[in-house]
Amino acid sequence: MSTHAKPVAAFDLVIFGGTGDLAMRKLLPALFRRFADEQIPLQSRILGVAREDQADGEYRDRVREALEKAVGGDDALGAKIDDFLELVSYHPLDATSDDGWDDFARELTRIDDHVRVFYLSTSPRIFVDICERLRQHGLNGDGARVVIEKPIGHDLASATEINDAVGAVFAENQIFRIDHYLGKETVQNLLALRFANVLFEPLWNAAHIDHVQITVAETVGVEQRGPYYDTAGALRDMVQNHLLQLLCMVAMEPPASLDSDAVRDEKLKVLHTLKPINAENAAQTTVRGQYRAGAANGGSAPGYLEDLGQPSSDTETFVALKAQVCNWRWAGVPFYLRTGKRMPDRVSEIVIHFRDIPYSIFEAGSGAIRANKLVLRLQPDEGVKLWLMAKYPGPGGLRLQAVPLDMSFAEAFGVQQPDAYERLLLDVVRGNLTLFMRRDEVEAAWRWIDPILAAWENSNNSPRPYAAGTWGPSASVALIERDGRTWHDGDGQ
Ligand code: NAP
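^ thats the input. predicted complex w/ NAP below
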């Protein structure tokens, strides 16, 4: 269904890692959908790059297969695949060798008035090689943009190294550090809710908000990503980027405009105000877990070590932690973050728990008055739910009940929600950096994460086991219940 989006100018997009999982499952389907929606001009070029030797035709066949899978049974959309494939070509190239780069550069510079985007959908290990060769061939000029995927490093030192290397070739305003959570409609709607309505902002502070919960739960295990995942773990893979970015969007002060630096300055301030978690307080404020075999996804699921094929590992597949934003607005309001694999549901949501009313005029028999909650659902079924107290209909006395004002974006606007990559890829072409992370944000996030990792490493404790298909170790429940609160349980109030 059309989202009536404005077309962008013709561009060239090079996907380094054009045969990889991310390119086939996310990037190319996202580009195709924007093309089918007439947002991408026919003169644009999409060039897949990887080491594998294959002809354009073979590559297009693989892309066709990936797109057919992505569009499912949508025949109208499927009919546009051939037109899209006209834009697609393939260049075998090893980013770590000089061979073939002259031809590649010649082909690319044949057209000189297109915005040029280099999407580094490869291991970060070769980011430096790719950038250096782009520079050698004069492909890093003003019209060029580079997109880098997470993980941007595995700690502050390695992130700084990557940022230095990419920054030596591209100016900061040419570098798009992608965090696809920021491209989700609900996250952008958080900006709309907070700053396009008068209702929420006066309440958006410690006087009216009791605490905030951010949950990103996956039902899957590590799947084929085991070898990478085991070197990362949930804190690096999810908290350092996605969950902290979501926390920043909730906690930041109103930016003066939607200008990229205005928004990113405010997010950075939040990261700087986070109370450090280190050896002194990590045991009280963090819980890490690792899944064991259990009943999950309607069957039985193996444990992490079996998935990994290793006898032992201290990598966490679950993290819960209590973060504190130390400023006037949020003093004393905990932000509870939780993420894990092999959870009972696939759900990403931000829950704003308001404070209790100061005084009740209702009789004891009217039912408990529950504090209001604003639930921002990122997946599945993006939407917003505001839990309010209302009178249960009919005679029989005034009985109170919590009911949700429920808005599914898909239903409210009658449009299919675009995938985050659709929005973000076209933002890159337009040069709009607002939803991308600036260097100082990434480094500030690592500066907060590194002491947690160090505290865990020095603690001699292993991650706590939890059964697949559960919400993590019981210590995660204890973490929040110690403060007299409970984790939000999906649909319930
Ligand atoms: P992948 O499936 O392993 O694909 C890697 C791609 O890089 C392949 O096309 C590979 O093709 C190419 N490649 C490897 N070495 C190369 C070289 N020396 N020169 C040129 N091309 C080379 O990885 P992926 O899952 O697509 O992930 C790509 C990046 O995105 C990673 O940094 C990952 O962490 C990140 N990411 C992925 C996802 C996801 O959902 N997959 C999500 C978030 C972030 P050849 O071997 O033929 O060269």
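The longest strand covers residues 209-217.
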